[in-house]
Design a protein that fits this description.
This protein is α+β, with helices and mostly antiparallel strands. 32% of the residues lie in helices and 21% in strands. A hairpin with an 8-residue loop joins strand 5 and strand 6. Helix 1 runs antiparallel to helix 2, helix 4 runs antiparallel to helix 5 and helix 9 packs antiparallel against helix 10. The longest helix is centred in the N-terminal third of the chain and has 19 residues.
């Protein structure tokens, strides 16, 4: 709690956002498990960060504004997915009661992703977005491999049908044309807000795919402008990306406005396995942002509020960077681990 709230205060203050509001929100998101001592090893190895940390900070940059975000996994009292479900649902209730989060969509798919019998893996992750022009917005990430009753593909397809996006499966199948073993569905994201812009996101982990091929596939979305993702990926990783120790990630985003066609597609490039230090990653990100016309100085200022050590002393702070076009304008997000347990985390999510 102390670490998370103090870090968020610095990020929000540096961004000109509402510090006290943010502190209240994060205290609720970290209650009650955030009162525990961090320790040297994670009792519950979270899916949030590569080193098992259950909290991640990020910032989204456009030419007009900066958003600050926090992702958490509610750490359970016991080392079981059933206990994790209880913690996650308690957090969801708190966000709906205290801050007006809307959980109607989550209720519609609750039994799919939070099964009563034999659940496995993580239960649910929660995120909050702080913007300069509105109240905090919340979202959740669900586990398509929640149990063995259904495959991730079957569970995601059923969820989309219940949520009114059944016809979107045609786009998803085309996007994952190599098959769901190589283009693996790994998360379903739901905005906990009302309105036609409320998003449903399907996340993929892509094995053995050239960035140029993934860029070409993203033409399926309404806003994608092909041609820049290959250079983006190469600049951030320092290589062409044909063979990767860590797979690329992407998502397709659906809203009521776009109906069965994705309104956007986003690429996530893993960073920590492609450099000897966070200093190198910082320099690569700064260069990429400058070329995209994005505020590299603002990114570096926020990074300085997150880093608790010299950037040359490890490579675990930067986890991913993502990019997409939004109405013809570039948007980039950087994701930061607190490194609570490891400055040099290994690669994760290998095939198998």
């Amino acid at each position: 709690m102390d670490y998370g709230v103090s870090t968020l205060r610095r990020l929000l203050g540096s961004s000109g956002l509402n510090v006290e509001q943010g502190a209240r929100v994060l205290r609720r998101m970290l209650s009650p498990w955030g009162e525990r001592r961090i320790g040297t090893q994670p009792n519950w190895r979270s899916d949030v960060c590569a080193d098992g940390s259950p909290i991640e900070f990020s910032a989204a940059f456009s030419r007009e504004r900066t958003q600050v975000r926090v992702l958490v996994e509610a750490v359970p009292d016991r080392l079981s997915t059933s206990a994790a479900q209880k913690s996650a649902l308690g957090l969801t209730r708190g966000l709906t009661e205290d801050f007006g989060a809307v959980d109607d969509r989550l209720a519609a798919v609750h039994d799919l992703f939070l099964p009563d019998g034999g659940p496995a893996g993580f239960a649910m992750m929660h995120a909050v977005v702080f913007s300069p022009d509105g109240d905090p917005e919340f979202k959740v990430y669900l586990n398509p491999d929640a149990d063995r009753r259904m495959t991730a593909v079957e569970r995601t397809r059923e969820a989309l049908d219940r949520l009114g996006f059944g016809k979107a499966w045609n786009a998803i199948s085309e996007y994952a044309r190599r098959g769901f073993d190589l283009d693996r569905i790994v998360y379903l994201g739901l905005d906990l807000v009302d309105g036609p812009q409320s998003r449903v996101k399907v996340y993929f982990r892509h094995y053995d795919i050239p960035p140029a091929e993934l860029d070409a596939r993203m033409r399926i979305s309404l806003q994608h402008e092909p041609g820049f993702l290959e250079d983006f990926c190469q600049a951030l990783t320092g290589n062409g990306g044909e063979a990767r120790p860590q797979p690329l990630v992407s998502n397709l985003t659906f809203t009521a406005v776009g109906e069965h066609t994705p309104v956007s597609a986003t690429l996530y490039v893993p960073l920590w396995v492609h450099a000897e230090s966070d200093r190198t990653i910082r320099d690569r990100i700064s260069s990429v942002m400058a070329r995209m016309g994005l505020p590299a100085g603002r990114y570096r200022a926020l990074l300085s509020q997150v880093a608790r050590r010299p950037l040359a002393g490890g490579r675990g702070i930067h986890t991913y960077a993502s990019a997409r076009m939004q109405h013809g304008r570039p948007r980039m997000t950087t994701y930061w681990s607190p490194e609570l347990y490891d400055r040099y985390p290994p690669a994760r999510y290998q095939r198998g």
